[in-house]
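Box 4.2: Ligand-aware structure prediction
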Amino acid sequence: MTAAGGPPRVRFAPSPTGYFHVGGARTALYNWLVARRLGGAFVLRIEDTDRERSDESWTEGILSALSWLGIDWDEGPYRQSERRDLYDEAARRLYAARLLYACDCQRADVEARNKDNPTPGYDGFCRDRGLEPGPGRALRFRVPDEGVTVVHDVVRGDVEFANSTIEDFVVIKSSGDPLFVLAVVVDDIAMGITHVIRAEEHLPTTPKAVLLWEALEGGALPVYAHLPVLVNEKRQKLSKRRDRVAVEDYRMLGYLPEAMRNYLALLGWAPADGREVLSLAELVDEFRLEDVNVSPAFFDEKRLLHFNGLYIRALDDAEFIDRSQPFLVAPYATWTDETFDPVPFERLAPLVKERVGTLGEVAPMVAFLFAEPFVMDEAAFAKAIANDPGARPILEAAYDVFSASPWDAESLKAELIAIAESAGRKLAKAQAPIRVATMGSAVGLPLFESLQVLGRERARARIAAALEHVGAEQD
Ligand code: GLU
């Protein structure tokens, strides 16, 4: 409930200036959980006032990533670029109330004047010059000299800012465009927002937002919550250049949205009993903004991968097969549609499910069934066959025995045990050349089930080809 007693109205307000970042997704999710838990509204607002950096394709990416994560919105998307009149009108009101003043200072002049000044920011040069607003003139907010502005933050407690440390900040640029801090406050008031839940990096501008909110007589201030920054394993803030941060990348790699969502929820919050795997209903039920942590949250890709594996294994087989479909075509698949056959895939799918961390790993694991020509890992071939003199007799024996053996995993295993024994090898050592010859790789699915699905003809043809190849190399 809010101070006013009604259900909360939260908003997610991304700037469409790049790929949708996992930090943005975490912010969206926390807002959404608050709205869903308390029966409130989740408003989506696209903050595209920076015309040079904003692009419609980034907006589309954000909408599609939110939908993928199952984060639906009740209102919007509003676009700030379509709400310009509201910001101009607010600026006129503030100017009429003498809360804004026009300023024609150039950045270089301000910097020159500030050289010996310990307080950074604007020095108030134009405060009392009485300039008329006009082209080339910014409008600045007249911050009171005295007093303190307090930000009530659910995560951090009260954060106090002495007004003397807040510069007279720009609300309308010299180009006439509104600045982000004004647009945010005007919209939050107009949209009846009760909770502003956003990234920690916005905390320094929040006292400015509070001053504007009060100046615009916006009524009860929203509840603020500044979420902890996401860091990598070196405790550095996640960066686009260094870390994998785009939600889209994870989607393309075959992460499940429910795993991603669960993992994102734990970046700064955990349920009281420390459980880690939580369904959406549990998250909605248990998430509390008051319990969000203030310290930086480690975005651990390995842990996310682990979560994803857990979620993949929890799918039933039919669902796993269904959800693998988009990952069985290019660019994941190295085969063509003509050589793909769903039947053998479905037979091996339960075994695949146990062994992949992402859906993107499915195609490489079953490529031995469908890729023509058959792709051989040359390093594995060298190790298990070309450089192992004991491999040839195993392959020859298997080639012969496999011509008449019953073709099921159990019988094939029994045959290979017999071959291994007569060659004086452990089963694993006897399997290695057969696996590489027939599957093209030293790792992957269990050999005997794979052979069963591959079929007698193809298995023998591949063993023969390997023998020929090694023969050619050894001759
Ligand atoms: N548009 C800002 C951003 O993308 C968010 C501002 C806010 O939530 O108040 O970082």
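In the box above, the bound molecule is glutamic acid. The chain has four domains: 9-77+184-230, 85-172, 247-314, 325-474.
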